[in-house]
Amino acid sequence: MKVSQRAKSVPASATMAVTGRAKQLKAEGIDVVSYGAGEPDFDTPDYIKNAAIEALKAGSTKYTATPGKIELRKAIAAKLQKDNGLSYTPDQIVVNIGAKHSIYESMQAVLDPGDEVILPAPYWVTYPEAIKLAGATAKIIKADKANDYKITPEQLKDAITDKTALLMLNSPSNPGGFTYTRAELEGIAKVLEGTDMMVISDEIYERLVYGQTEFVSFASLSEDAYNRTLTVNGFSKAYAMTGWRCGYTAGPLDAIKAMGRLQSHMTQNAVAFVQDAALKALEDPDSEVERMRQQFEKRAKLMADRLNSIQGISCPEPTGAFYCFPDVSSHFGREINGVKISSSMDFAKALLEQAKVAVVPGGAFGCDENVRLSFACSVEQIEKGLDRLEEWLK
User: Fold this and answer.
1) Rounded Cα–Cα distance for residues 222 and 226 (Å)
2) Exposed end of the chain (fewer CB within 10 Å): N or C?
3) How many CB atoms lie within 10 A of CB 31?
4) Which residue ranges in the chain fall short of pLDDT 70?
């Protein structure tokens, strides 16, 4: 059977590939410590699950309005006003099948073939593929390790051309939990003034920030930033609802309407009873989310401290999300148990096969010097896996 060139051009997700191999080894009875997929180890809170069950019993099984149930969109608008200082009407919000779908659909709505998208590296593995599928080209800016892997206004200014249509922002970030400060975002916003560029701000990890870190929505910085930004968020990370697949996008009315038109031919709507569960999630007094956030914060410090104690590894302490992104490149060129380590992929493969620890190679995120570890697992697993990593490197 013929397979399209479009499909052939898209590689499998590196995170899912590592997780798949780790699961295969586990199925064979091998004890594997996996730091692979970005998924909370907590279960979805019962009050959310019960809301879905009640919605099913009440017959919430039919099509909904394409952009989502009006009750949910009103609740999202209220959340954005209260938490983010963003004023949107329900018509400026579209509910998607998870934030990954939000990003894909956003790019389909605002990009044309030949457009350039500025993509800071490290980046989430899906961004360049979504850009490619929209017919655009990713223009990658490598962020400096010394600046905690965040781009500067000067780097952004130097990268803009007459073909630049969009800036992709993610804070707190996947793969490293790096969070832009208000001043850093204001510097970026200043560079964009006077241009026609749009911004997609992926804010899926906004509730998971640590220490004195302040989360700032890019669109809240100014009227100019508001008018050029599509704000993407969802329920997967903060509410441990990864498998439920519910995200949303808020932004300028013409772009949101365009997304709605596309969605009417793609999926019609997000799952009806999942929308009811998402609505209930937004009514949470924050106790469940805060409990999970506190656990992630403890693990962030534990994992970063342990990684930095291992010879030849350096890792900034995450200020958000649930990932560490250590630089392991000082070990490139070594031979470990007969395997030559020349890249992050070599490092990850050998570590999994020899020490039974699964990490994601940083090359998939645009930084081949690094690997990604998720601390969305127990303290015991963090300690156990890092003991193995340290021993393996010795």
Assistant:
1) 6
2) N
3) 9
4) 14-15, 285-286
